[in-house]
Design a protein that fits this description.
By secondary structure, the protein is α/β, with parallel strands linked by helices. 26% of the residues lie in helices and 33% in strands.
């Protein structure tokens, strides 16, 4: 089951090709690398309108070439939420728009439950798109965990931009697996768990994370935090070579084995305006009761 984030107004994939994508972020047009776009560009005209182009470096990372003067940051909106956008040195902008389909799922599931006591845990939470979606939908508490202090600060800015300061959001800078095990010892339970783990990374104390080595353990430990009447477990994955079938098998052997329920997996997609095609943006897996 694939899902397309098709309800954006402030964001648009204009065109793709030559391992790049051309995007509109509100009023700013960016040209960024994307290795999945292996097909040729069909129409060069639109690409010349880019306000900024990201160039990769042979030594890692890269830099932005600005064709027009751009602000250091600006904002975009999605269904009552607002996010800070700022081009970074590693081509990213602080938001993954394809995740909007997951935000819709989170908001719908929480609202449909009609519960006032929903507690959500968001791991590898980045700048907090899913955190804000859960809080906006009425979650009683959202616990936002990320190893990067800078990303957690960015998430706090998104909370303020979305006017969610009066909601209970706990921001924690921590290694995710260590935090999960500590929550087990505390006897804490959650009604929804969200995670977007990287392929590779390090925690605040240089803890090594490798998806293929650590993901099964993390999911297995996380399922121990699900409450008896939990609503969902949601994972996104961008690691090359990790298939939907791998994710399905992992969720079946951990969460479904213990809690029953239903598992769905598929691709996250974004619509492309130029030729009504779609851009693949990683995969997702979710468990629901």
């Amino acid at each position: 089951m694939n899902q397309i984030a098709k309800d954006w107004k402030d964001y648009e994939v204009i065109d793709t090709g030559n391992k790049e994508k051309l995007e509109r972020w509100n009023h700013i047009i960016l040209r960024r690398p994307d290795p999945v776009c292996i097909w040729p560009i069909e129409d060069e005209k639109a690409w010349k309108k880019a306000d900024a182009i990201y160039h990769r470096s042979n030594k890692g990372g890269g830099y932005w070439e600005y064709k027009k003067e751009c602000k250091e940051f600006w904002t975009i909106a999605y269904k009552g939420l607002r996010f800070k956008i700022s081009p970074t040195g590693f081509k990213h902008t602080g938001l993954f728009p394809e995740q909007a389909a997951n935000w819709d799922f989170i908001m719908h599931t929480i609202q449909q439950s009609q519960r006032k006591d929903v507690r959500i845990l968001n791991l590898f939470a980045y700048t907090g798109g899913a955190t804000m979606a859960a809080a906006h939908a009425g979650a009683q508490e959202v616990v936002h965990v990320d190893a990067s202090k800078g990303m957690v600060q960015w998430a706090k800015e998104n909370m303020e931009l979305s006017h969610l300061e009066d909601h209970k959001i706990r921001f924690i800078v921590e290694d995710c697996l260590k935090f999960v095990k500590r929550e087990q010892r505390r006897g804490r339970k959650y009604d929804g768990i969200i995670m977007d783990p990287p392929s590779y990374g390090r925690g605040p104390k240089k803890e090594l994370w490798k998806l293929e080595d650590n993901l099964f353990e993390l999911i297995d430990e996380c399922q121990k935090l699900l409450s008896d009447d939990a609503l969902f477990f949601l994972i996104s994955c961008y690691t090359t070579g990790f298939s939907c079938s791998t994710l399905q098998e992992t969720l079946q052997r951990t969460i479904q084995k213990t809690h029953g329920g239903t598992i769905e997996t598929g691709e996250n997609l974004l619509p492309v305006s130029h030729n009504d095609s779609v851009l693949p943006c990683g995969i997702f897996g979710r468990w629901t009761k």
